[in-house]
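Hello,

Our lab assistant flagged a job as stuck in the queue for most of the afternoon. It eventually completed. Since we weren't sure the result was trustworthy after the delay, we are filing this so someone can double-check. Below is the sequence as submitted and the structure that was eventually returned. Let us know if re-running is recommended.
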Amino acid sequence: MSLQADIHKVLDQLSNNEGDTLDIDDSWIEEAGEAFKDALRRQFAKREDEDFRLRMSNIGKPLCQLQMAKSGAKKERKDYNFIMRMLHGDAVECIMDVILKIAKANITGSKDKVVLELEGTTVKGEDDVEIDNKVYDIKSCSPFAFERKWKMGLPALKANDDFGYVGQLVGYSEAKSKKAGGWIVVCKSTGQVLVMDAAFSKDEKDTVLQDMQMKATALKDDWSFDRGFEPVDDFFNKKYTGSKKLPASCNWCDFKKSCWPKAKLLPQPMSKAKEPKKNWYVQYEGMEL
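-- returned structure --
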């Protein structure tokens, strides 16, 4: 069976009160509990400001975002529920670690600290898990992302990779001289699990590595800032509203207010909803902001 099928089988048995039919070592549960306690301590501790550096977790992000971070641009204040999203991700990772062991996955490595050298720039990170000598990342996501991105496979992820997941996984695999296995993805709301294979061709992997090298060089040599995105036309029910909004990639960026100082969060024109969807606009109903 496939890794995904093995995971689903274990979850099916656990969901139907058949845990006594499974080989579950209590030490696995203890290890997961300790790992989550460490995550709680890390997330709750005050983090001192650190000098910017490239890491596996950020090297896949847009260059303009990395340039903003390096420049010390002001970050937006996080939403109050940000910490809950982070802790949810930590919990999912700890739970999946146990599930993989119960499913008898051939775990050949876990939480390995890695180093990737990019012609003068050292990029460090820690992977999630290695199965059958392939590197996997464990991710949690919203139902929307689960259906519209992860279920659609690698092409959909590559087309909408605002968080740099592709670069992160390729970086881990290159640093470890191992193949990229893919992503083990858990929907936060439904609990559904899928395993998306990272079937990179050599050319695709080389392209990602070249992009990472470009970013490392740009940051090391202080290339001039280049905002990598432009506003997009806003439509409601396929009708142009006369407005321009920030693209989706900018919505997730911590520096959008620094990068787009005139942008305003406003309700979508033409919407008759009681609480219309809000977007970040730079042009609103024909007027520049």
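-- support follow-up --
The delay was a queue issue, not a problem with the job. The result is valid. The CA atoms of residues 267 and 273 lie 10 Å apart. The chain has a mean pLDDT of 94.
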